[in-house]
Predict the 3D structure of the following.
Amino acid sequence: MHIRTPHAGWHAGQWRMPSFIASPCSLGRAPALPVAASRAHAPTGVAGVALAAALALAGCASAPSPTPTPAAKPVAAATPPTASPTTAATPPQASPDTDHTTGFAQWLSTFSAQALEAGIRPATVRDVLGKAQWLPRVVELDRAQPEFTRTPWAYLDSAVSPQRIAQGQAQLAAHSTALQAAAARYGVPASVITAIWGMESNYGSNFGTFRTVDALATLAYEGRRRAWAQTELLAALRIIDQGDIAADRMIGSWAGAMGHTQFLPSVFLAYAVDADGDGHRDIWGSVPDVTASTAHFLARSGWKSGEPWGAEVQLPPTFDHARADPAVRQTTAQWESEGVRSIDGAPLPDLAGASIVTPAGARGPAFLVGNNFRTILRYNNSVNYALGVALLARQIDGGGPVATPWPRDIEPLSRAQLQTLQEALNRKGFAAGTPDGVMGPATRAGLRGYQRSLGTVADGYPTLELLQKLQAP
């Protein structure tokens, strides 16, 4: 997801993972989970001795055998459980250009002991975690920053392309039984499930090539998001412990998101479903499990069955664009009383807590969005992503594209230009937060204040023209 790596604002929350503790004394009898033949051997030297000692100590303990988790059943929205991050060795942030063989092995042995204390089976610690590899490419990707901020229309051109719409319609037809079963069970439209599938992995054609344990171990050692990565790594090991997937089939993105709809391991533990009844929750190879798990997450995150996500609207000329904000909510009737109308003249959906969003500012399309749009944001906290899912689902169902033209003449600002804009706003007394080249709420508020001082529409959308005015003497 993704339910992606942690971010501010709406997110999927944190989940408490159940503890599954195997009998360490059965280490010699426990079947080793498969690992790829090309994997490196377990740590040797100091790390190997430490890991062996930890396993030996664990072998003297007594604990109950693991109990498989039953398939999730439809339930009302509830407060999600919380994952408890562990505390591990804290090396300095790692550089991908440095040889980390020794440091990673030492960290691995320390974390292996903590994994055993957390209830991970000794066989899993030995055969899976003990053979994890340091992946410099993961560190490079984690630290990579795009030079330019992608415009909403460029993002949606790709996310809701004619090819992806056609593929979505084909997938909806090919897997109608699984999709309709998930829709009936959880109240989430089949087209929305299909759209998320398309957005996350292009319908399973690209859900990543990284071994999840390797990627998360690298991120946990690397240090920038250590606590989060350690929590997700423990969750990944629990999934393997439960027998849902073998370690060599647990494949996903560099950030640890897995399978067709890119669940993080902690989210998998809380929401994955065995819909095909084979005893495994398989979001890598079972379409019924993929579709049911995705719908289950949305249902538990607050999806309201039968309620539209929203609609494209036309705003009145006097509209205050500072109120085009997901945090500003009122009924559809209240928005209509202010002159908001549907773009095609049809009645607007009756939404209790509706917001106006204008991804490209005052010159671009506007949308009235409600609870189910915010639920999609729980999957990935990006307005562009949620809009991509909503529009893709609508067109998979045969609906039309966005009617209002995008302002394609506006050039995107680079991160350096955005940082310069933030610095200029701060100098002129329009608080934009820490200059970091990222367009966040503080920068948008500061930019709106500056636009008001100019007597222009205060939509908070950054443009080269505004940057040049800010830099003028």
